[in-house]
Design a protein that fits this description.
binds guanosine-5'-diphosphate, globular, about 20% strand, Adenylosuccinate Synthetase, Chain A, domain 3, Adenylosuccinate Synthetase, subunit A, domain 2
């Protein structure tokens, strides 16, 4: 019996989707517990290459039930597009359950996200404009719409009227836009209600029962620890907790249910959007790493934006693993560094007052922090076809050992390519 959270230790894009697809083979349930369609998870398996944004990454395993949990920001349009896309590409129809208590991302949330980014101009936080920040703001302002509300017409109208009373004042007077009519939102949601109906259920009871009966549950995180709104690089963070500690809350499981926390760590750093990024590279060094990174270069799955890249950052990653409470690490993208004879790594930060630290500072101090760099020997070869840890070049093993020592968590798995089978289990 086990409940495992699989989460990011960095800024996101660590390769969680790939690893969830791998681990889903042994999981009865894969559960999304937070976030919405604002980040993509790349999965490459025998069906082809996919970039999932709303569906859990267990949809390619026929024995797995996929759950969109209560803590998520449910974008029904994206969900339906993804289900259709899977069907068109020959993937068997996945088992899917959507929490009746999950809340819906509405067109008005996407509109507000766009209008706010426009208003902020160069001071924007790099939103993917999927409506996530306005969605969570409304959720906590108690203006949100739960999935179950879709099937109670009078209640839905009343809830939407309350929401629009707040939104329309801002639309007219703050953003200078026309007000939204409640009928427009009701029409939109009628379609969503019909499409969602076959999947809606009480996922909390479902998962609690699965937990009690000892089934294997995988809780799939989105983004990474450094995007957590409490502990990350606020305000360049996301709007829902990205931490394993939140996983049982967003899924509807007891806090003590989570027995393993698998933190996914990238062998170098990458970051989408604005915010302090101490290990960031520029010029040709960045371009070389960006072109080689991931499965087709480091470009955002949702936005197509070039990702900012840097060397492995031991300060940020140690902090990320600590926040996640990682019990083990999967180190991804190790193959990408095969072009280097020497591999720089960030081992400490120098702060504005000249002091060095290995503790990740608050955003106000992070802005001025400079990386303290050490160099590790590179292996200068392609390791993407290697299937056993002891067959890796000595320098690659040393690099893994260095990461393990600097973050204080055992690296149990190494990923050497984007495909499902490019995974090396490390036995001890
Ligand atoms: P996620 O959001 O954490 O699932 O990560 P993304 O899918 O946004 O980004 C990870 C990128 O790295 C994708 O392009 C993956 O195909 C790719 N990837 C994952 N693991 C590896 C690996 O070990 N090596 C290489 N070269 N690419 C990988």
């Amino acid at each position: 019996m086990s409940v495992t959270a699989i989460v990011g230790a960095n800024w996101g894009d660590e390769g969680k989707g790939k690893m969830t697809d791998v681990l889903a083979a042994d999981s009865a349930f894969v559960v999304r517990f937070q976030g919405g369609s604002n980040a993509g998870h790349t999965i490459i398996n025998h069906y082809g290459k996919f970039a999932l944004r709303m569906l859990p990454s267990g949809v390619f395993q026929s024995g797995t039930t996929n759950v969109i949990g209560t803590g998520t920001a449910l974008d029904t349009g994206v969900l339906m597009q993804e289900l259709q896309m899977l069907a068109e590409r020959g993937v068997p129809s996945p088992k899917l359950c959507v929490s009746e208590r999950a809340q819906l991302v509405l067109s008005v949330h996407r509109l507000f996200d766009e209008l706010e980014e426009e208003r902020l101009g160069s001071g924007s936080f790099g939103s993917t404009k999927r409506g996530i920040a306005p969605f969570y703001a409304d959720k906590y302002a108690k203006l949100g719409i739960q999935v179950a509300d879709l099937y109670d017409r009078p209640r839905l109208r009343e809830r939407l009227e309350q929401l629009l009373a707040a939104k329309n004042v801002l639309l007219r007077h703050h953003y200078n836009r026309p007000a939204i009519d409640v009928g427009q939102l009701i029409d939109e949601l009628q379609e969503a209600a019909a499409a969602l109906a076959p999947y809606v259920c009480n996922t909390t009871e479902l998962l609690q029962e699965a937990y009690r009966s000892g089934q294997t549950i995988l809780l799939e995180g989105q983004l990474g620890a450094l995007r957590d709104p409490d502990h990350g690089i606020y305000p360049y963070s996301t709007s829902a907790s990205t931490l394993a500690g939140y996983a049982p809350v967003g899924a509807g499981l007891p806090a003590a249910a989570v027995s393993n926390v698998v933190a996914v760590v990238k062998a170098y750093s990458s970051c989408v959007g604005a915010g302090p990024f101490v290990s960031e590279l520029g010029g040709s060094e960045a371009e070389q790493l960006r072109q080689r990174g991931g499965d087709a270069g480091e470009y955002g799955v949702v936005t197509g934006r070039p990702r900012r890249v840097g060397w492995f950052d031991a300060v940020a990653t140690r902090y990320g693993c600590m926040l996640q409470g990682a019990t083990e690490v999967v180190l991804t993208n190790l193959d990408v560094l095969g072009y280097l004879d020497e591999i720089p790594v960030v081992v400490a930060y120098e702060l504005e007052d000249g002091k060095t630290t290995v503790q990740f500072p608050a955003t106000s101090k992070l802005h001025m922090a400079k990386p303290v760099i050490r160099t590790m020997p590179g292996w200068g070869s392609d390791i993407s076809q290697i299937g056993r840890f002891d067959e890796l070049p000595e320098a690659a093993k040393q690099y893994v050992a260095f990461i393990e020592a600097s973050i204080g968590v055992p690296v149990m798995t190494v990923s050497v390519g984007p495909k499902r089978e490019q995974v090396i289990a490390r036995r001890r």
